[in-house]
Amino acid sequence: MTAPSRDVVAPSRDDPVVRHGSEVVGGPRGRRARPGGGWWTPVRVLLVLTFLTFAVGLLQKDYCRDTGWAAPGNYVHACYSDIPPLFYGRGLADGEVPYIGQEGDRQVEYPVLTGAVMWVTAQLVPDDLDPAQRSLRYFDVNALALAACAAVAVMATAALAGRRPWDAAMVALAPGLALAGTVNWDLWAVALLALGMLAWARERPLAAGVLIGLAAATKFYPLFVLGPLLLLCLRAGRLREFGGALAAAVAGWAAVNVPVMLADFDGWARFYRLSEERGAGFSSIWFVLSQQGYDVPAGLLNTLAGGAFLACCVGIAVLALTAERRPRLPQLVFLVVAAFLLTNKVYSPQYLLWLLPLAALARPRWRDFLLWQAGEVVHFVGIWMLIAGYPPGDADRALGENGYGATVLAHVAGTLWLCAMVVRDIRRPEHDPVRTERDGTPVADDPAGGVLDGAPDAFRLARA
């Protein structure tokens, strides 16, 4: 492994956006300034920023907290959350255990660790409150837990960034974190995957695998990290470490899934059946095509969406194996997850959280990050304004199909822009801010790479 520089990168000197923004507080940090030494370390500042962002997000949800999540106005105010409705809709308020003995619409439609979180937090809600108060208490308990998950993800991102811990401020200050952090339970998977990648960075492949497996038992997407790991370990000749991580991931996933499978296979399989059977969901490109009169038959949708994702993965694999310099792990993971989100049948508003730590690590430039976030904010408002027109909604204030389609295009364009920047950095590493200073001086290989960091190539495909 290469020896990292001990100097923490100052964003006000490294990033043009931060440098110009710093003029309001006296300008960039001087070259003779001594970093560190005070109580306000980067991690502590980042934690404060994370909780402040989360607090802003809770204020944005204040209308729904006051009026309840069943009122049509919650869409117009863009404060909807799945958490309170599912407290009653999935039998949690009545003491039902997810997956076990549930039938029909009462079955929990998430992987087992998400179901476990839903059930455990339900036990913290007193039975002697009225239904509205119980629903609010359930939301608040989960919001507190999700804020802790966000803090874990930010700290892990700072550690993965090596000499660039301030890159994690992109996660801590992301508008998407404030808006989508409490829509669903996705931040649990985000935090577990960030910890898994951190374990890999610290050359603990078995721990990394277990955490990745647990993350995949919370949301499915963390499994996608294994593909980039395989490609990079193949190039570096470190397949033994990959094999250990893969075996540990399978073991971690099985440890929490198999008991539920044995107890009630039908309840356990609800998530997987729904993933296969559901049609084009809100905000997917397939849904927008349907709105514009280009409906894809249900029997063909899985094939097209899966084929598009597979084609993207093949392209990413070719990029990874032919690039003159081996890509960094976060770069490839970001590209794979972004490809899945762009081609999938469903794009729920909170899915933007999946990319937050990966984007900060793959392309740590505020300009590109904010362009992407701008598209996501436009889309976040757009989806709720579309649903506001559904009965019994508020059609007078709802967004029409064409306007909504434009907001989806904003989300797609922002994500594609960030993907293009990451691909450029892979093809031209001298543009990668992690690997080179602004003057072109090489400074690092892959701080998140673990055994891959600084390792020579054992295999590389020649470019066509």
Describe the structure.
It contains 22 helices and no strands. Helix 13 (about 225-235) packs antiparallel against helix 14. The protein has helices spanning about 10-15, 15-20, 40-60, 60-65, 75, 85-90, 110-120, 130-160, 170, 175-180, 185-200, 205-215, 225-235, 240-265, 265-270, 270-275, 285-290, 300-320, 330-345, 350-360, 365-385, 400-425. About 60% of the residues lie in helices and about 0% in strands. The longest helix is centred in the first third of the chain and has 30 residues, at about 130-160. The protein has one domain (about 45-450).
Short description:
With about 475 residues, the chain is mainly alpha-helical. The protein has helices at about 10-15, 15-20, 40-60, 60-65, 75, 85-90, 110-120, 130-160, 170, 175-180, 185-200, 205-215, 225-235, 240-265, 265-270, 270-275, 285-290, 300-320, 330-345, 350-360, 365-385, 400-425. Mean pLDDT is about 90; it is low at about 1-5.
Approximate shape: globular
- Overall residue-averaged pLDDT value: 91
Count of strand segments = 0
**First and last CA, distance:** 31 Å
Portion of residues in beta strands equals: under 5%
Number of helices: 22
Secondary structure class reads mainly alpha
Give the % helix: 55-70%
Q: How many structural domains? A: 1
Topology:
Elements: H1 11-14, H2 16-21, H3 42-60, H4 62-67, H5 73-76, H6 83-89, H7 112-122, H8 131-160, H9 169-172, H10 175-180, H11 186-201, H12 205-216, H13 226-236, H14 239-263, H15 265-268, H16 270-277, H17 285-291, H18 298-322, H19 329-343, H20 352-362, H21 366-387, H22 401-427
